[in-house]
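[step 3/7] fold_predict: job queued, chain A
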Amino acid sequence: MQFDHLGLVVKSLAKGRKSLTEVFLIQAWTAEFRDEVNGVLLQFGRDPAGVVFELLEPLDESSPVYNALVTGKGILNHIAYRVADLCLNAERMRAAGCAPTSEPKPAVAYGGHKIQFFITPLRLIIELIEAPDHAHEFLAVPLAE
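[step 4/7] structure written:
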């Protein structure tokens, strides 16, 4: 498993970008991705230490992250790892007592490669991404507001 990002739920990508840029000194952002299958508008930002944050804006009330905005809970939504074999790692997660939150789905931000979310016995949400060699394409400067 290779660390990929920390997922944060935001009301709007623009407000999230502004806040994370100021707080974490984000120096580069990817393009925005509209992912209808997973119900989110999303974007990745990288801080000076190389930590990648994913901003997740729900597309509508049916989005799996919408409830986080309503309740104010789960704003720091998940930690994500890239894996070579989603099926093998899903079996390992289940053996460790983790429960899948849904079936694997293609993800726009990863070129259609499959992702799957699990909840651990400690109630941490983990995203597995079957794209071991994926690299986010960051822009040289933060996006203008």
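[step 5/7] annotate
The chain is about 20% helix and 35% strand.
The radius of gyration is 15 Å.
exit 0
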